[in-house]
Amino acid sequence: MSRHQISLLAIAVAAVTALAPSPASAQPKKAPVDCEQVKCIALTFDDGPGQYAGTLLDTLKKYDAKATFFLEGQYVKSRPAFVKRMAAEGHELGNHSYSHPDFTKSEAGKIRSEIQKTQDAVKQAAGVEPKLLRPPYGLADLQVSDIATEFGMPMILWTGGSHDWDTKNVEAIKKKTLEVAQRDGIILMHDWVKQTVDAMPSIVKTLQSKGYTLVTVSDIVKRQNLQPGDIFPVPQGWER
Ligand SMILES: [Zn+2]
């Protein structure tokens, strides 16, 4: 295609975008973040969408921050509008099972159906399929890894936890999150914890003032070249 054709195409796309009520597919694509140049961090929210996801999305939008949501299929079913909005606003959607069983204590068939039902629910709600798996409780073994391989998904754990589900205290969540924050870090949080959502404006502002860009997990792991079934960061004692 010539440059002229491409620019005509761009004008056509822009015209359509201006007329359409901006579905996710028509959002202007930003240049991808390069975490080698930029000080990146990924906040991840598990088990949702939780009931406070709307407020969290408002905060992320206000500060132009991206996050990753490891969704539980049963709540995708009950709160599909949040999932649609997450995708439309540039956040990443990951698979965190359908009903949160410990995969290392589950039969293969159960694990497969937990993953598949969640893939289907997210696809139905947001039109996209998760590309990353976070096994419930961050627990995986070789069987889980093999099944993740079948689904073409690497498994993503975290470099630091906010302990939000434990403390349920705004100041404690902020303190712990900032303590474990590091360049290219992946931070575990939960959008069903009200105090986490309440702490977010202050956490985001503070991280940004320290030079962080809040990005998705895929932005962070781009350089790792993860293959389906891989786990990152690799937990102690893990051998493939
Ligand atoms: Zn979980």
From TrEMBL:
The keyword Hydrolase applies. GO terms for molecular function: hydrolase activity, acting on carbon-nitrogen (but not peptide) bonds; metal ion binding. One of its GO terms (cellular component) is membrane. Residues 39-215 form the NodB homology domain. It comes from the Bacteria. Residues 1-26 form the signal peptide. InterPro entries: Glyco_hydro/deAcase_b/a-brl (IPR011330), NODB_dom (IPR002509), Polysacc_deacetylase_ArnD (IPR050248). Keywords: Hydrolase, Metal-binding, Signal. GO terms for biological process: carbohydrate metabolic process. This is Peptidoglycan/xylan/chitin deacetylase, PgdA/CDA1 family. It comes from Nonomuraea pusilla. The lineage of its organism: Bacteria, Bacillati, Actinomycetota, Actinomycetes, Streptosporangiales.
